[in-house]
């Protein structure tokens, strides 16, 4: 048991008896999502009867059936669950700070938008609901001013707490300061309803989002959470008996009625009726025959098939979707950084505007109104809803976009370099994609030392790669580099690497992965990325424009602050739950009625002296 304790985040066995063991896992105190995943992994073991998590005490209690396996085998399987949880969520963010890439996540409300810390219903809604009820009853019941004010301020304590933390750390003022001042000043002035309503609506939105997230995670169970039974596989001509987590690419195994497909692969023999996995666009039962693809999570209903394993574990489509939903890698985009920088630099001017209005008018209401200016929650909501939904949908379509930054780069490409020096697969499909890209105005370059040229591309050989690189960098082109083979040789760090069906890949590396080796998947991925970016901008407008209207209405027309609160939260709700969570994205780059245009080879305009290609 000593060896078992040396796992990630140093879980320790604090008490163990036959059939029961208690672990101390410090990480579950600060990272509830990790704790939830760990419980699911442990509970999926056939030998485990019950798992109980205590986040406050940072403990996990596991009750198991001791008669099924010896103690060493039991602890080996439990250890495997801890390792799997770490693979899925390798770098937790501390509760006291936002992710390093998420400059925008420096205010309390944005932290709630990002679910940086999952809270209970009482933590989010208990005090806010009490404060709202007290503020509504304060006039008819003539409640004391001090009681009502203290209750409202207590409901806003998370905002005040983060302001204090930022000041102690010596950080520059952020949006928390504006929100805190707005709520405190209204409370001091006896306007209790607006700040109480704000804390309640923000908490309610976060609670609804939390419930949706848990439903998603239950809908997409990880392939690593089940199927520990022994499988008989054929590997390099030898028959082996192993667990599903030990499968490797190239293994052959027979699947029979009732079996759940443990990996992604191709059918090489047999015929069977299959119920698709949860993530597949169609849930209708289909018949699979040799040449068809099967994905982890499908279930065999009738018949039997032999599967050649292509991807296993977290690199299956189901595993990638589960990883995306758990880690939410959506805060590395340029848009998020720009919004965060703007929000940080707008705080002091907003305070100055508020002070100037106070000095100019002497009126209390207009001076406080600017403190409710929204500095980009539309971006935050879209990152967490639109971007994440687009990443999940892209995996369903056969292309893996590991972060929102890669999705953003893919949407904004204006040039594509095809490195075909190791060969060009499916040249006819490549030609169709090139025609589409040319119609959209993209420049396509084909790098190969031998082989047939493609219509509509600029062809060059390896000795001209340096010239091409210098030309594209000088022109500040947004370049995608697609390569084939086991390694990616993208020459520029700012270019977007695109890999063609690699045998293995890191789950969070900023590399676009074509999972099935299909040119049309790249076309679909670009369409999804462009659609997601367009929806993000629409959400920003949906939230920002009404916010500006009601803020200026409060400054110049005396609009009641409750109108501001209701407007801001209503538009945020629409952006997140009505417009943001739509699962269907555009998958075609061009309208179906588009007319093909003749393609002419592009010229490579290198700086003088130029050498003709």
Provide a descriptive summary of the structure in words.
This protein starts with 11 loop residues before the first strand and ends in a 34-residue tail after the last helix. The chain has 18 helices and 18 strands. With about 625 residues, it is of the alpha/beta class. Among the domains are: about 10-90, Alpha-Beta Plaits, CATH 3.30.70.100; about 110-220; about 225-310, Calcium-transporting ATPase, cytoplasmic transduction domain A, CATH 2.70.150.10; about 400-530, HAD superfamily/HAD-like (Rossmann fold), CATH 3.40.50.1000. Helix content is about 45%, strand content about 15%. The strands form three sheets. Strands 5, 6, 7, 8, 9, 10 and 11 form a seven-stranded antiparallel beta sheet that branches. A seven-stranded mixed beta sheet has the order 12-18-17-16-13-14-15. The chain is globular and about 85 Å long. Residues about 1-10, about 90-110, about 110-120, about 595-600 and about 605-613 have low confidence and may be disordered. It is found in: Membrane.
Task: Give me some keywords for this one.
seven-stranded antiparallel sheet, Calcium-transporting ATPase, cytoplasmic transduction domain A, disordered N terminus, ATPase_P-typ_transduc_dom_A_sf, seven-stranded mixed sheet, 613 residues, P-type ATPase A domain-containing protein, disordered C terminus, 18 helices, alpha/beta, Alpha-Beta Plaits, ATPase_P-type_domA
């Amino acid at each position: 048991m000593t060896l078992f304790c040396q796992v990630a985040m140093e879980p320790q066995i604090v008490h163990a008896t036959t059939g029961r063991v208690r672990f101390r896992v410090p990480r579950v105190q600060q990272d509830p999502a990790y704790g939830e995943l760990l419980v699911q992994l442990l509970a999926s073991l056939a030998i485990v009867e019950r798992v109980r998590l205590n986040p406050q005490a940072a403990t996990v209690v596991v009750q198991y059936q001791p008669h099924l396996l010896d103690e060493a085998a039991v602890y080996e399987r439990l250890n495997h669950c801890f390792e799997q949880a770490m693979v899925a969520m390798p770098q937790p963010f501390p509760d006291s700070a936002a992710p390093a890439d998420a400059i925008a996540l420096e205010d309390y409300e944005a932290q709630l938008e990002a679910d940086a810390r999952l809270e209970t219903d009482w933590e989010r809604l208990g005090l806010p609901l009490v404060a709202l009820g007290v503020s509504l009853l304060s006039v008819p019941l003539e409640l004391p001013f001090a009681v009502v004010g203290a209750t409202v301020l207590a409901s806003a304590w998370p905002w005040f707490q983060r302001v204090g933390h930022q000041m102690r750390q010596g950080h520059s003022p952020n949006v928390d300061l504006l929100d805190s001042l707005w709520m405190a000043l209204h409370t001091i002035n006896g306007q209790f309803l607006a700040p109480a309503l704000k804390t309640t609506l923000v908490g309610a939105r976060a609670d609804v989002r939390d419930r949706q997230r848990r439903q998603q995670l239950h809908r997409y169970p990880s392939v690593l959470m089940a199927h520990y039974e022994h499988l008989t596989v054929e590997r390099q001509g030898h028959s082996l008996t192993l667990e599903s987590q030990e499968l490797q690419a190239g293994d052959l195994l027979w699947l029979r009625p009732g079996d759940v497909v443990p990996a992604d692969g191709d059918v090489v023999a047999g015929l069977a009726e299959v119920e698709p996995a949860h993530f597949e666009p169609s849930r209708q039962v289909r018949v699979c025959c040799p040449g068809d693809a099967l994905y982890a999570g499908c279930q065999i209903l009738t018949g039997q098939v032999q599967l050649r394993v292509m991807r296993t574990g977290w690199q299956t489509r189901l595993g990638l979707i589960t990883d995306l939903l758990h880690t939410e890698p959506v805060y590395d985009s340029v848009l998020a950084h720009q919004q965060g920088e703007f929000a940080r630099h707008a705080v002091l001017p907003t305070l100055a505007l508020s002070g100037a209005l106070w000095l100019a008018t002497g009126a209390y209401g207009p001076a406080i109104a600017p403190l409710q200016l929204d500095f980009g929650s539309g971006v935050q909501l879209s990152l967490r809803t639109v971007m994440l939904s687009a990443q999940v949908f892209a995996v369903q379509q056969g292309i893996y976009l590991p972060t929102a930054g890669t999705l953003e780069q893919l949407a904004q490409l204006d040039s594509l370099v095809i490195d075909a020096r190791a060969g060009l697969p499916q040249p006819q499909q490549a030609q169709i994609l090139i025609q589409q890209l040319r119609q959209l105005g993209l420049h396509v370059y084909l790098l190969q030392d031998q082989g047939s040229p493609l219509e509509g591309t600029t062809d060059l050989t390896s000795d001209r790669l340096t010239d091409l690189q210098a030309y594209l960098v000088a022109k500040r082109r947004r370049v995608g580099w697609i390569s084939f083979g086991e390694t990616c040789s993208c020459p520029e760090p700012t270019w977007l690497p695109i890999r063609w069906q690699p045998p293995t890949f890191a789950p969070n590396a900023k590399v676009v992965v074509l999972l099935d080796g299909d040119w049309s998947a790249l076309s679909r991925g670009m369409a999804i990325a462009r659609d997601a970016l367009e929806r993000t901008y629409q959400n920003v407008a949906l939230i920002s424009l009404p916010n500006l209207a009601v803020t200026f209405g409060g400054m110049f027309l005396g609009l009641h602050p409750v109108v501001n609160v209701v407007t801001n939260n209503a538009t945020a709700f629409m952006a997140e739950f009505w417009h943001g969570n739509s699962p269907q994205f555009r998958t075609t780059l061009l309208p179906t009625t588009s007319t093909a245009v003749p393609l002419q080879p592009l010229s490579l305009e290198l700086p003088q002296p130029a050498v003709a290609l």
